[in-house]
Amino acid sequence: MALNSNPPLGLYIHLPWCEKKCPYCDFNSHTTIEIPEQQYIEALLYDLEQDLPLIWGRSIESIFIGGGTPSLFSGQAIEQLFSGLRALLNFNPGIEITMESNPGSADIEGFRAYRESGVNRLSIGVQSFNDDLLKVLGRIHTAELAKKAFESARQAGFDNINLDLMHGLPGQSLAQSIADVQDAIDLGPDHISLYQLTIEANTMFHHQPPSHLPDDDLSWEQQCQNQALLAEAGYRQYEISAYSRANRQCQHNLNYWYFGDYLGIGAGAHGKITLTGENRVLRRERQRQPQAYLNTQGRNSIVNEKQLDVADLVFEFMLNSLRLTEGFESKLFNENTGLSINEVLPTLQSARESGLLSIGQTKICPTQHGFQFLNDLQSMFLDHKSTKNQAFFSTTDEIIHS
């Protein structure tokens, strides 16, 4: 392994509090009556200071503030956060700064305050425009409130907005799924994320499964028809769950898919850092519980750190990059892992023979069949890695937002 250059660097900031825990959510989120804003912002900046020696001389290409519901934080708190970030970091010109919001958690004045602080991209968690399905999902907003949140964000000056939607919902018909996507298109967002509901461990839906989940055939039909609808409306699919207008792809998530680096600060945040001088790639995880995280201020909040070995590098790169509709340039595998593509050539050839992968002269890309069975394609690269630490290192869903 020979790491000759650093990949792009992002920053993920986790704000873990919500008004209510949704029954399908497996993110690190916690309900609270009162958020200790000042203490938490100070803890975030302290965390970042401790990580600075890892990134001397590097600029931040993108920032993503996820949760939880970050828009429960006041505009003043977000302004304080960004004042501290700018004092500690070099922001790349044209940096993308995304913040997640739920309908009803911020009004137009709140959105204006976030925009003035430097946030230039908003991701609104709508999930559905059907009030009955929103109740099934445990959401506390209505379809009308979701539409008003979008309009308020536009009025506040946001010209780059993502809407999160889900399909494969309990009792959801094909027509209802299409109607959700059409409602989103009618609002005119710049980016739409469309995820299939999955029942994750450690969620209420896992312990009390909802009834009338669509079968695989119906879920696939929902996905295919919605893909066609989005394409007709000018939204190009560039990742398994992401659709954007021209030049509106989420840069922060693209950095994940291309196996770039990112610092992670906040309760439960994950990070990946390349240390070219030491020829090492590190994965780091912080204390998950908010109060325990706050109690670490003045000490190290890292609870898990591991240097990735060859097997980890292969699996993680493929876990991420194979989600992209256009795949990846083979040279990127070498640049971001320090490994030769020959390391995985037998597996690549096997995937091609199975009809899951297309291998060109310079590019490797999943086929349509490969996208339909993406988990099968990704799992082919598990042979390169032991499963001992799989729970910690295959945490894409814990870090990827929209």
Number of helices: 17
How confident is the prediction overall: mean pLDDT?
A: 93
Structural class: alpha/beta
User: How many discrete structural domains?
Assistant: 2
CATH architecture of the largest domain: Alpha-Beta Barrel
CATH topology of the largest domain: the name is: TIM Barrel
Please summarize the sheet with the most strands: 9 strands, mixed
Strand arrangement, major sheet: 9-10-8-7-6-5-4-1-11
Which word captures the global form? globular
What is the distance, rounded to the nearest whole angstrom, between the alpha carbons of the first and last residues? 32 Å
Radius of gyration: 21 Å
Fourth CATH level, the homologous superfamily of the largest domain: Aldolase class I
CATH class of the largest domain: Alpha Beta
Helical fraction equals 25-40%
What would your notes on this structure say?
There is one protein chain. The protein has two domains: 247 residues, TIM Barrel (Alpha-Beta Barrel), CATH 3.20.20.70; 75 residues, Orthogonal Bundle (Arc Repressor Mutant, subunit A), CATH 1.10.10.920. 38% of the residues lie in helices and 23% in strands. It has 17 helices and 17 strands. It starts with 8 loop residues before the first strand and ends with a helix.
